[in-house]
Amino acid sequence: MIELWARRYVDVVVAPIGRALAWMRVRPAHLTLVGLAVTLFGSVWLANGRVREGALVILVGSALDGLDGAVARASGTASARGALIDSVSDRLGETAMFAACAFWLTSRTSPQEGDPALVLLCVLSLGASLVISYLRAKADIGRVEGRGGIMGRAERVILFAVGFLVDQVAVMLWLMAILTWFTVFQRFANTWRQLEGAER
Length: 200
Hints:
This protein is mostly helical. The chain has a single domain (about 1-195), classed as Up-down Bundle (Four Helix Bundle (Hemerythrin (Met), subunit A)). The chain has nine helices and no strands. The protein has helices spanning about 1-5, 5-25, 30-45, 50-65, 70-75, 80-105, 115-140, 155-165, 170-200. The model has no long low-confidence stretch (mean pLDDT about 85).
């Protein structure tokens, strides 16, 4: 949703940063991999009970990863292989943060220690996130628009981090599971309609 509705406003801030980083000869893949490393580090912190610090670091990692596209456009180095690295890194980052959440929920530092329902919500949210990404990939293969829906990657990372920062993890996980699966149905229906029109 942010990707579609707020793209031009975000670009006002991100594009100059991308040009500056490109001028400094920073490669898009460097930002992608650094962003992933930061996200993994934040996930480890979160899993070990430093949940607010971990959530903030995950946000920073996601922001760094979000700059790779701006650098690629500014430097004219956008490529299919770069897009592949970015996509895989995004999935690894999301897997890490939901795995960290599930691990923390089963630890003694969690107020909801051992709550199987919340652990299940982590699994369901991760599953929906992966299906959302898969649907976009299938839409791209069919040469139709695969973005959209209420819970894109940016929204998922923001909701995840905010849930820990305001100490409302259970509420966050219920919202995450419901909204991500709703997004799955949104993207499936949208892609189905477009592919049907393309086949006529």
